[in-house]
Design brief:
One of its GO terms (molecular function) is hydrolase activity. The protein has helices at about 30-50, 65-80, 85-95, 115-125, 130-145, 165-170, 170-180, 185-200, 230-245, 250-270, 290-305, 315-330, 355-375; strands at about 5, 10-15, 20, 205, 210, 220, 225. The protein is mainly alpha-helical. The strands form three sheets. Strands 1-2-3 form a three-stranded antiparallel sheet, with no helix packed on it.
Length: about 375
């Protein structure tokens, strides 16, 4: 596989399934069977290769945030497919970790909470207290011993709070799910308070996008503000996963819908002609390479909004089809999702033969909602 790129212009990139580029920009709707088959192929490839390094990725700890994002999408696919193979895979992860959250960065760090989303979904399915208890206990501790850290980047213990936008995907949905499961408002109250603090800090009102963290406030890239695609994808997908748990009409639901709609309007404008979102959202001409993790999360977020009556179907459906059809061109014949930007915090590079588990999580999340849209 070869890729040829010229500055400011995307040349065509040959993949085993076709061409990943402008020539394939499509707004036609796929069939349910096509979506199902593609999701199954990608999910099966990922499970088969989960414990093996390669294709630009290393093997991550089961509780690592990278895998936490995978499990979010894999859980959606497991529920859609109604195939025990995928539920068994996720349940096996839970047994291996003893249903505990990550420990690498400490109790408060949002990345360590991401795996809790999968635990709580399996608890809903099996009603087994061991799947719930460790996550609930840790969130209880945080409520009663809240971090006093500043949101300013590089201050002591700064990531004990959600001071980088990725965190808004990792942790808040856990709190929202706990609220729905237990009926206790204290989890929601804590989450909303912290989410508002982060949004007040990182959200650019003019652009309706989130900075990755404070260190990007005064940086530019080729004269443009730096709004990282996957970073905003984390937020947009996180908003959908939070809203899924909230009661429509409540003040909390209205708060998150307001942010979600602002982002949706801006992101619709920023989708490229070939259906992707550039790694630097305001600098597409400088980042012509396709990128599938941000595109996957955005496609999921838009499709979820249409399916839940929050976004206008006529206005936004073409955005979803373009995004999903673009993603298809980056899936190889054996099911590997390529063009996933490696772990990072800013716009960078992506390659057709490199993948990552969080990109697959984004893809499966997108497919789960695109499937509902298809006739």
């Amino acid at each position: 596989m070869n890729s040829i790129f010229k500055k400011g212009k995307l040349a065509l990139t040959i993949l085993t399934v076709g061409i990943c580029g402008t020539a394939w920009a499509q707004t036609n709707a796929p069939t349910k069977q096509e979506i199902h088959n593609s999701m199954q192929k990608v999910a099966d490839w990922q499970i088969e290769n989960f414990w093996e390094a390669g294709h630009g990725r290393r093997v991550h700890q089961p509780t690592n945030w990278t895998n936490g994002a995978l499990y979010v999408g894999m859980m959606k696919w497991a529920n859609l497919s109604d195939d025990e193979t995928y539920t068994d895979f996720l349940e096996g992860i839970g047994e291996k970790t003893e249903w505990k959250l990550g420990e690498r960065h400490g109790l408060y760090h949002a990345d360590e909470h991401a795996v809790g989303q999968m635990y709580l979904e399996l608890y809903r399915k099996f009603d087994d207290e061991k799947m719930l208890e460790p996550t609930q206990k840790q969130m209880e501790y945080i409520i009663y011993h809240p971090s006093q850290s500043s949101l300013h980047w590089k201050t002591p213990y700064h990531q004990d709070r959600w001071n980088w936008c990725d965190a808004l995907f990792m942790s808040p949905p856990v709190w929202a799910k706990l609220t729905k499961i237990t009926g206790e408002e204290k989890y929601l109250d804590f989450m909303v308070s912290e989410f508002k603090a982060t949004t007040d800090f990182l959200f650019d009102k003019k652009e309706s996008l989130y900075y990755r963290d404070e260190s990007f406030f005064d940086k530019t890239d080729n004269g443009t503000k730096i709004f990282w695609s996957r970073g905003n994808g984390w937020v947009f997908a996180g908003l959908a996963n939070i809203l899924e748990e909230l009661e429509p009409g409540t003040s909390e639901h209205k708060y998150f819908v307001k942010i979600y709609k602002k982002m949706a309007k801006r992101l619709k404008e920023l989708q490229t002609a070939d259906g992707y979102w550039a790694m630097s959202l305001l600098g597409a001409e400088y980042y012509p390479t396709p990128e599938t993790s941000g595109t996957g999360f955005f496609t999921f977020g838009f499709a979820w909004g249409i399916n839940n009556g929050i976004l206008d179907k006529e206005d936004y459906t073409p955005v979803v089809w373009k995004g999903w059809n673009a993603l298809q061109q980056c899936v190889t014949d054996d099911g590997m999702l390529g063009y996933v930007q490696p772990i990072g915090a800013a716009p960078g590079q992506a390659w057709p033969d490199k993948t990552e588990v969080y990109g697959v999580g984004a893809y499966l999340s997108a497919g789960s909602e695109v499937y509902k849209m298809a006739q």
